[in-house]
Design goal:
This protein has helices at 2-22, 39-54, 76-87, 102-106, 108-113, 145-159, 173-186, 203-214, 227-238, 260-268, 289-301, 315-332, 341-352; strands at residues 25-33, 59-60, 63-71, 92-96, 118-120, 138-140, 165-170, 193-197, 220-224, 248-250, 273-278, 358-360, 365-367, 389-394, 400-402, 409-411, 414-416. Helix 10 links the parallel strand 10 and strand 11 (273-278). The chain has 13 helices and 17 strands. 39% of the residues lie in helices and 18% in strands. It holds the Pfam family Peripla_BP_6.
C-alpha cells in the first residue's frame, strides 16, 4: 500500500512538473498611459504594439509577449507606482510610455539608475531621452520637442506668414521645454507674448485668455497642450467674429483624446487649426504593402475600433508603437533570453543601441536608429529626426491629413503653392 502511495505521488509530481515546464513563459510590456482622460492615444499605442507582436504570433524564443495596461490617469505619481511595480515583476521586460511627458522628466534619474527599459511612442518632452550617462535606458520613436518647436515656428512664419507669434503653453515641464525650443527657433524675432495655462482649464477661462491674446499685437497662436484644454481654446477662438479669429498652430497633444468631436463644428466653420505629426498618414495605408498588411492584421485584432482606419483617433500613436514594436522585436532577436529578467533588460538595452541591418516600418526604414548616448551625441536615443516631422489638419470625417512640406501659403484649411 505504501509502495502504491509512493508511486502515485511520484507520478503526480512528474505530471505537475511536466505541466509547469510546458506552461508558456511570459514577457510583459507594461503600458503606462492615460487610459482615463486620453483614451484615444492610449488605445492607439496599444493597438500598434499588439499588432507588431501579432506578426510573430506573440511569441519570441518560447516566451509569450503580453501588453499589460497600466492607467496612470495623467498622474505622475501613478506612473511612478507602475515603474516600481515593473521593477518588482520578474516577468516584466520593458515599459511602453504614454502621452504625458512630466512623469518621465520628473523621474528620469530614478528610471535610469534603476534600469527601467522605457520605450516612448508619444511623450515628446526634450529631456526624456537625454539623461547624461552612457547607460541611458530611455528610447524614443516620436516627436521630439528639441526639434518640434522649429517645425511649429517655421510653419507659422512661412506657411501662415505670421509675424507676431503668441505662445499659449501648458504650465508643465513639457510646456516649458517647448518654450525654450521655440525661443531658440525664433532667433532674433521677438515673441509677441507668452501665456501659461494649467491642466483642467475650462471654457470660461479659455475664452478670457483667447480674448486677451486676440486684442494684443498678435497674428497667430502656437499652442502646446492636450485635448481636454485644447478643445476649449479652439472653441473659444471659434466663438469670435471671423475677422477677429487667429490661426492656431498646435503641438500634437490635442490629438490624444476626444478632441475632434468637440471642435468639429468650429473647424467646419473655417477656423484654421494645424498640428504637428510624423510624416505618415493612415489615409495612405492602401498604397503601401507593409501598411496594408499591418492595418489588416490590426483589424483582426481590434475589429470594432478599426472599422475605418483612416478615421482612427490619435493615428500616430498606432504608427509609432507599431514601428517601435518592430525595433523591439529586432533587438530581442539579437539576444538570448533567460529567466534572469534583469539580464534580459540589460542585454536588450545594449541591443537596441546596436540593431543589425535595417528594419522596415510604417514611417521609414530604420538603419541603426539608436546609438550610445554621449554629450556630443544628444540624439542617440531618438529614432526620428527633423525630416520625419510634418504638419497636418483634420478632415471632415475626423481623419488626419498631412499638409505639403515646404513653404506654402495656407488659406483656411487648404495649402496652396505661392
Amino acid at each position: 500500500m505504501r509502495l502504491c502511495n509512493w508511486l502515485m505521488c511520484s507520478c503526480l509530481f512528474i505530471c505537475f512538473t511536466s505541466v509547469a515546464r510546458e506552461a508558456p513563459r511570459i514577457l510583459k510590456i507594461y503600458h503606462d498611459s492615460d487610459y482615463s482622460n486620453h483614451h484615444a492615444s492610449a488605445l492607439a499605442m496599444k493597438m500598434g504594439l499588439v499588432t507588431a507582436f501579432a506578426e510573430v504570433n506573440n511569441q519570441v524564443q518560447g516566451y509569450e509577449l503580453q501588453l499589460i495596461e497600466k492607467d496612470n490617469r495623467g498622474n505622475s505619481n501613478r506612473s511612478f507606482l507602475h515603474i516600481r511595480q515593473y521593477l518588482n515583476d520578474p516577468d516584466a521586460l520593458a515599459v511602453l510610455g504614454g502621452l504625458h511627458s512630466p512623469p518621465y522628466i520628473k523621474y528620469r534619474k530614478f528610471i535610469n539608475e534603476s534600469g527601467v527599459l522605457l520605450l516612448i511612442p508619444w511623450a515628446a518632452g526634450g529631456p526624456i531621452t537625454r539623461y547624461p550617462d552612457a547607460q541611458n535606458w530611455v528610447f524614443r520613436l516620436s516627436v521630439d520637442d528639441s526639434k518640434a518647436g522649429y517645425t511649429l515656428v517655421e510653419h507659422a512664419q512661412q506657411s501662415l506668414r505670421c509675424e507676431n507669434i503668441h505662445l499659449l503653453l501648458e504650465n508643465t515641464p513639457w510646456g516649458k521645454s517647448n518654450e525654450k525650443t521655440m525661443r531658440t527657433a525664433m532667433g532674433d524675432t521677438p515673441i509677441a507674448g507668452v501665456t501659461w495655462f494649467n491642466w483642467n482649464t475650462q471654457y470660461a477661462s479659455a475664452k478670457i485668455i483667447i480674448r486677451d491674446i486676440v486684442t494684443s499685437d498678435t497674428d497667430c497662436i502656437v499652442f502646446v497642450g492636450n485635448a481636454p484644454e485644447g478643445k476649449h481654446f479652439v472653441n473659444a477662438m471659434a466663438s469670435l467674429k471671423n475677422q477677429d479669429r487667429l490661426p492656431i498652430i498646435s503641438h500634437w497633444g490635442i490629438t490624444g483624446g476626444a478632441f475632434y468631436p468637440a471642435v468639429k463644428e468650429s473647424l467646419n466653420n473655417g477656423l484654421v487649426l494645424h498640428f504637428i505629426q510624423s510624416c505618415f498618414s493612415l489615409r495612405d495605408y492602401r498604397h503601401h504593402t507593409l501598411a496594408k498588411e499591418a492595418v489588416d492584421l490590426a483589424k483582426n485584432q481590434f475589429p470594432e475600433q478599426l472599422v475605418h482606419p483612416e478615421q482612427l483617433a490619435a493615428p500616430t500613436g498606432f504608427i509609432h508603437s507599431y514601428d517601435l514594436g518592430r525595433l523591439l522585436l529586432q533587438g530581442l532577436g539579437q539576444i538570448t533570453l533567460s529567466d534572469d529578467m534583469k539580464s534580459n533588460r540589460a542585454q536588450l538595452r545594449a541591443a537596441l543601441e546596436h540593431l543589425d541591418g535595417s528594419v522596415v516600418g510604417l514611417l521609414k526604414t530604420y538603419q541603426r536608429p539608436f546609438s550610445v548616448w554621449s554629450t556630443t551625441n544628444q540624439d542617440a536615443h531618438e529614432a526620428l529626426g527633423q525630416d520625419d516631422f510634418c504638419m497636418a489638419k483634420y478632415d471632415l470625417d475626423g481623419g488626419v491629413t498631412l499638409l505639403p512640406k515646404g513653404a506654402k501659403k495656407v488659406i483656411g484649411n487648404e495649402a496652396t503653392s505661392d
